[in-house]
Amino acid sequence: MDESRKRPVTGIGRVIGWPGGSLWIGRHVAQVQDHAHHAIQVSLAMAGDFRIQGAGWPEPRATRGVVVMPDRRHRFDGAGATIATLFVEPNSKRGAALRTRFAGFDLCLLPDDEVRDAVQFVQAHYEAAAPDALLLQAAQGAVCSVAGNPPAAPVDDPRITSAIEWLQARLATPIRLDDVAAAVHLSPSRFRHLFASQTGTSLRAWLLWARMEHAVESAFQGRSWTDAAHEAGFADAAHLTRTCRRVFGLAPTMLVPEQVSGK
Questions:
Q1: What are phi and psi of 87, to 5 degrees?
Q2: Burial of 207 per CB tally in 10 Å (0-12, 13-18, 19+)
Q3: Cα 168 → chain centroid
Q4: Residue 255 pLDDT more than 80?
């Protein structure tokens, strides 16, 4: 039997990542049971409502938008809606802005007008089957809209640009901060500070997101999950799946990729 017919499918759509965040977008066809995850979740319905239930809530609540803080248990039912779900690294600049705005909340339902404004460009690009680069740009804009438009990162430092190129070429290998710093002729402490100021996150968090982004992108382009995991520095497909469940609350195989001619 084909593997895709045996695995549970939560949605049909696209996954696009960037270091520090990712967009999971499409039609949700099943429930995600009670879980918690490391990332901040921002779910914005483009068509229809979905249902979400937080710990201690007696019943699920129907909404078009929600923000779920890190490590808060919740249950999600897409109810057939078309949804853009954005996962954000809590310690990134966008994550810090979200944590500031929604301090004191476990889950916060968003008003319909705010959802509509935040997701409009994501929806337009998605419905036009736009390339990943355009959809990613719109997704990052949606996060900024919900977060309250945090300050932009400083002008790119060529040493950090070089470090990121060095890192991306070595995702499959063990990486130490000292080695990256030496490659761009910086002390470890100076590199740590400069990297965080430029990327908005730590090297460790950046690597986690970059590796998951690379693995999911490779698998969605036709590589086996085992090959994709190895190419991104995971021990095997099970390691990738465990990490993905910890960060996002679901396995990457639970989303069936769309065929998009414009990619």
A1: -110, 130
A2: buried
A3: 18
A4: no
CB distance 177 to 207 below 8 Å: no
Q: Quick check: 64 and 119 in contact, CB under 8 A? A: no
Angle CA(232)–CA(188)–CA(214) in degrees, nearest 5?
15
pLDDT tens by residue, 45-76: 999 999 999 998 999 999 999 999 998 999 99
Angle at 13 (CA atoms; ends 48, 86), nearest 5 degrees? 70
Closest-CA residue to 22 (of 184, 261, 262, 255):
255
- 163: closest CA among 14, 65, 19, 13? 19
Instruction: Please report, as a single letter, which amino acid is at residue 112.
Output: D
Are 171 and 216 a contacting pair, CB within 8 Å?
A: no
Question: pTM for the whole thing?
Answer: 0.82
* Alpha carbons 69 and 56: distance in angstroms, whole number: 15
